[in-house]
Each structure stands twice: as C-alpha cells, then as structure tokens.
Specification:
This protein is mainly β. It is about 0% helix and about 35% strand.
C-alpha cells in the first residue's frame, strides 16, 4: 500500500502518510466515522460542535465528496497522540473552498499548537501556517482564499529532524507563497 504514495518511476524508499481522509463516506451529523485510507487506522469522527449546526460530509468536493464546516466549531477529531510524526519534518496538504463569508479567524486544519489559520483581514484573506501557536509569525499565503474557488494547500516544515529553527513553507495551488523560520511545539495532539 505504501507504494501507492511513491513518486512513479522513483526507486527511493517512501512511506505512506500518517493519515489520509478522503471524506467520501457521504455522512452528515455528529459522531460519524471518517475513515483513514492510509492504512494506519487513524479514523476520524465528525463533531458538529456546541451549536449543533449539522456538519455535512456529503457535499460535492474537488475530488469526490467534501465536508462542510460551519467555521465556528465543526471539526473532525482523530486519535490523540498519533499525528503528526515526532520528527518535526513533515508536510500536510488539503483542498479548501471558502464561500466568501468568513468574518472571523478559523483553523481549517489544526493539531495542538500547530495549525493553518484562515485570517480574514482587510484586503487579501490569507492562510497562515504556524508550528507553535503563533499564527501571526507563520508562513503566509498571498492568494485570496475566500473566493468561492477550490485551492490546494500544502504546508511543510523542514529542520533536519530538529524542532528548532525549522523552515516553514506554504504553497497554494502549486506555488510557493510564503516562508518563515520558527520552532515547532512538538507536543502530540489529535488533528
């Protein structure tokens, strides 16, 4: 199964991701299972939050189906202590579409102190990628992400195995848009 994640034609060793969620279960509501297709069994559970807004993971996505989050307290909870790997060298990617109505800061992907923060500031509404809870010090995108279009987002950290002085990079739609240097909070949390 790990071969499914290797670069075609490359003979370098590769490993499957820690988690991969396609959201193709077509479920809606609280407490529904969203399966990890990486083979690591880090299945997620839908949580539609205190406002019980009815999180819906049966919406049309960029590829297959997608989850619609309310931007307040909807989330997919994964097992505590398994994500991300402890090396502090990692990448995370996701498809995102915002409908142009975000009025406050929200985190489309977060685990512990590490997160992508969608910041609807004046002008371009951007993502900040932070490894330690300081979203304002993270790598920032330049693309307006609140435009009702699908965007492919990738964040990477690289520090040669160290959690201090790591280089953060954020890519949007295949283009490097921001870099920063920071320290990673290496505590384990669920995603």
């Amino acid at each position: 199964a790990s071969g499914d994640y290797c670069v075609p034609g490359d003979t370098s060793p590769c490993a499957p991701p820690v988690g991969e969620w396609t959201f193709n279960e077509k479920v809606a509501g609280d407490g529904k299972t969203l399966y990890d297709t990486s083979g690591n069994a880090n299945n997620g559970t839908s949580n539609d939050g205190a406002n019980n807004s009815g999180m819906d993971c049966s919406k049309p996505g960029k590829i297959g189906t997608a989850c619609e989050f309310d931007g307040v307290d909807d989330l997919v909870q994964t097992p505590t202590g398994t994500i991300p790997p402890a090396s502090c060298d990692y990448s995370i990617s996701f498809w995102m579409k915002s409908n142009g109505t975000v009025s406050h800061m929200c985190e489309p992907v977060a685990w512990g102190y590490r997160s992508f923060v969608f910041y609807p500031g004046s002008g371009t509404r951007y993502l900040s990628y932070s490894p330690n809870g300081s979203w304002w010090a993270g790598a920032r995108s330049t693309t307006n992400m609140d435009d009702s279009q699908w965007h492919f987002v990738v964040g990477t950290t690289s520090g040669g195995g160290s959690c201090t002085g790591v280089v953060l990079r954020i890519y949007v739609d295949g283009k490097l848009e921001g870099t920063a240097t920071g320290n990673v909070n290496s505590s384990y949390y669920s995603m």
